[in-house]
Each structure stands twice: as structure tokens, then as C-alpha cells.
Amino acid sequence: MHSTHRRRTGATVAAALLAGLLASPAADTATAAATPRRVVEDLDRGLVAVPSGGGTFLSWRLLGTEYARRGDRIAFNVYKNGRRLNHTPITRSTTYRDDTRGEGAYTVRAVVDGRERRASRAAFELPVGHAEIPLAAADGYTVRHAWPGDLDGDGRYELVVSRLSADRSGTDLLEAYALTGERLWRVDLGPGSLAQVPGNGANDPAPAAISGSTAVGGYRNDDNVTVYDLDGDGRAEVLLHTADGTTFADGSRVHAASPADQFVSVVDGATGAERTRQPVPDDFTADGPSGGHFGIAYLDGERPSLVTKLVTRVGARRGTFRTLFQTWDFDGTDLTRRWKYVVPTDRGASSFHQIRTVDLDGDGRDEIADGNYVVDDDGSLRYVVDGAGHGDRFDIADLDPARPGLEGFAVQQSELGVVSNFPWYYYDAATGERLTTGAHPADPASETDLDVGRGNAADIDPGHPGYEYWTSTADVTRPGAGVFNVRDGRIATTAPSVNFRIWWDGDKAAELLDFTHVEKWTPATGTSATLFDPPGVVSGARNATPFHGDLIGDWREEILAETADHTALRLYTTTEPTSTRLYTLAHNPAHRLGWTVRGYLQSTYTDYYLGTETRRVPRPAVTTPRGAVSRDHHP
Description:
By secondary structure, this protein is mainly beta. It is built from 4 helices and 46 strands. It has a 5-stranded antiparallel β-sheet with strand order 1-29-28-27-26. Strands 11, 42, 43, 44 and 45 form a 5-stranded antiparallel β-sheet that branches. A 4-stranded mixed β-sheet has the order 7-4-3-10, with no helix packed on it. A hairpin with a 7-residue loop joins strand 22 (291-297) and strand 23. The N and C termini lie far apart (50 Å).
């Protein structure tokens, strides 16, 4: 392992322990006082009402901002047409099932220290079991990704979606929709969004595509778009790459002297009009088309910054990675550069297909993880994992609550006949130290299928403490196949689907999302049972839906999928009651920032241990923007 600075210190370890599974209320308070307080979205209660079993299932948010102040001193009352339904305040859940007759408008009120607060807005009704969001006409287009953001400042999320031409003949579109189905605006990304496919095994001298980017193996691994409130006014901006010919929702266009000229544009989330722009760093222009990702990080621990990544491969079709990070701040008027960092090519750093922005060392400030290396919050190289190379996927979370801090799990690819040093590794996310390393078969030269393209980590076996992890390696005779536990090693020779982790059924263990269905792993039989399989919708590239995450209701995650005829999006939420009460995942820093990076989609995690053994969740160091609108959750 190569490390430039700031190894985990005793103070850092202590801070990580305080944030762990057994943190006390007093310790929570002390840690929060010492940690920067992040400015997060001022969300509403998120109350949702869904028909279920002849009655109505209701769920709502416990907000991270109120949990941070009052912890477990918050209860709730549920109302229908102004009449309270529950006999005593609800303290152990944020769900309720109403079996009373007749229709009505539902609201919920927080009860703090015995005092009832104001009513929430009326519930978001899903009368057919899901929200239907009609898509604007665009023949031959499919939805690729979706970014949630509160575009109008009302406390409810809207969606920004990318729509790509299925045959790559049309320019990429970026559109915004309300969850209630209204189309808000469209931006046409122009000719620069057409995928640039390297020819003859080398990079062609063409401008980098601004959305889909370099196509590899028939897929588009990149995004170059994100959505977040950078200036703290309560309304999210849309950040994206633009180039000559990009047309905004108000009809204005980008005019540039060369197709190679590209920009980072700030777009008003409510209107789709451009507010300002800055040129993209031109360090890699001579190398041909570049890929990239956008994301958000709290580099100072309090305010969000934009992170842009440019990556290209120099030489042969799968040559040496060249990667550049540029970070930006937006104050409502000006987009300014914070720092730029070109990753050295002689240190073994190898770009993956997605970045993660997460606080790895417990100081409240986010680092940028890119597979086998990490860039620190100040724009310096933190470490490179010794012996690791390129892979497609990696996960970072508190995978083992018995260890301080966060851990990671990453897979390794073998490219062009070159066998990787190992198929996967489990590691300390703060230092890059490999804790457990997978093994190839004894004679790798005789094997033809050593490329490990998928991996996932989740708590799927309650019989073993901490998380499990597994890969797409199907041959169970290989040392790297099967399910592994972070403490107990290999615990099964078969494995479930390897696409995504999702919290769906109400317990603290994980379920799995593949294509558009949710399944539950049964350790005793080594098989999976389907829990949810909605009809009429399809997944996209790599069997992924445009989004899944905690958009409405309680802490569990929703699924956003496109209809089979590509005319609408459907948002599904669970209707399973739960006695587990957690603050909304949208207010957990690591989980929320995971939504800001799309590209080659991966599972999104919390920065605390969330699994079968979780008994109490630490309070997050978060606050709402100064001058935020007073909603139902405020006293």
C-alpha cells in the first residue's frame, strides 16, 4: 500500500468508535459538537398513502435534522380528515395501517416531549400502488439515469432524468419531472453528447462526449451530470457538461469556437435555464475522448462542492488510465474552482467506473474514492491499495461494526488476457490496508474466465455478524466464489444475485434488487425468494433501473423503473409495516451523496452500521440551510 499522509490516528479511531454501533447518547452529543455540521436538504415529512390489503398503508420520514437534536424523544400522531387514528403516540415506527372505512386526506403530526406540532402536508397518494410519471414524447429514447433533487424548494423531491437514443443516433436529453407527473423542462445536450467510440484500438482525436461519453462494450459508463443545492438557497441546481450546440429550456444555446471546447454549466433546477458556466480543464484534450463522472462532496465538512472527474486511456484500447479531478464551489452567482488534481500514473492508481464521496477518516470532511485509490479532501493522494488494479465495482460502508471506521470491498478485472493479482479484496477504507484477499485458481494460465465484473456487499445472513460479500464468479470450485462474511470467511458455496442491495421488507437485513424485482436470500437453503416483481416495467443497461433510494415515506428505499413501452416512469414503495425506526436515509451523508453519482451504478450505503445487529443509530451532524422555510417538522 502506498500512502502519502494522514494515517488513522488514535483520535480518528476514537471518533470512529463513537460513531459505531454501541455509541451512547452522551457520546453522540460530544461527537456532534466536535464535527462540522453539514447543511442538508430541508425535506418535508414525506407522508405517502398506498392501498394495501383492503386498507391504506402510511409511512413518513423521521428527519435526520430532528433526530440529531432530539433523538428518540419524537413520537407521531396520524390523522384522517382531521381525526386522529392512533390511540397513543407512535414511538417505535414511522408506518401505520389504516383499516377505517371511506376515503380521506391523511396528515401526520410530530409529538415532541408531549407537545404536538403542526400538521404535515397531505399525504402523497399512490392510488394504483405506484406513482405514474408520463414522459415527454421522444421516439426511440430510453431513460438511463435519474437524479433526485428539491428543484423548487418545497421539501419534496423532483427528478432529473437522462434520456438516450437507443441507436445512438440522437443527442442526449436531460428532463425534469415532478413526482406528481408534471414535466418541468428539457435540455438538449447537443452533438457533443453523441458517444465517441474509439476506433482501431486507440482514442480517436474527437471531443469528449458530454453525457454518455466513451462507449465500451456497448455500454455508457459515465454521467457528467448531477443535481444538488450548492448555494444553500433550498433549491437544487443541475450541474452538467455542455458544449457547442447544447440548448437550454429557455431556448438559449452554447456557442463555442471548437467542438472540443467544453464547459461545466450550472442550470436552474426550477426552470432549466443556464445560470453560469466555466471551461472544463483541457489537460487531456490531446488524448482524445474522455469519460467522466460528476458528484458532490462536503470537502470542508459544512458546504457541498461539485466534484468532476475526467478519465481517458492512453495508447492501446485499454491503455494507461489518466484521471483528473476538478472541484468547484457555487455561491448562487459564480462557479469557482476549489482545487485540481491530476492523479499520478506512476503510483498504481487505476480508475474504476464510479466514484464514491464519503468521510473515510471521521473528520467530517469527505474524501473521493475511485476504486483502488483515494483523493483526500484537500486534493492530495491519500493512498493506493497495494497490488490492486482496475475493477468495475467497489463498496464502502461500515461492513463490520466490531472494527472502527469504514471498510471497503472491491472486485478486480483481468483485461486482454492479463490475470489480475487477485479477484477481489476487503480492505480498511481509511488506510487502504487489505484485510482479506481473494485467490485465483492454482493455475490461472489455464483459465479463460477470470474477469470479475460484479461484486456486492450486504447483510444477507443474520447468523453471522456484520456484512457478507460475494462476486459474479459462478464456478463454486474456485477459491473466490460463494458468499463470504467479514469475520467468518466463506460461509456458502452458492451466491445470490450480485447487482444491488436494497432495504425493502422492514427488517434491518438487506434485500437484493436485480432487473426490476426484489429478492430475499435464504441462507439455510442457499436460494432466493422473490418479494416484489412489478409488471409492465423494464430495467436498462446492466439490469439496472434509473434509480432506487429513499425518496418518500419512511427510511426504506423506493424503486424507479421505466415502463416497457418507454412512455412513463413508475415509482414503487414498500407497503410492509416495520417496527424498525430510522431517520430518513436521504439525510445520511454517505447515502445521500451516493445518489449524486450515477454512471456505472452501484449499491448505496449508510456511513454507520445498518444491519441485523444494529440497536441504535448515531445522530448525524447535519443542519438545514440558514433561513430555511419552517415546515411541519420544526417546532
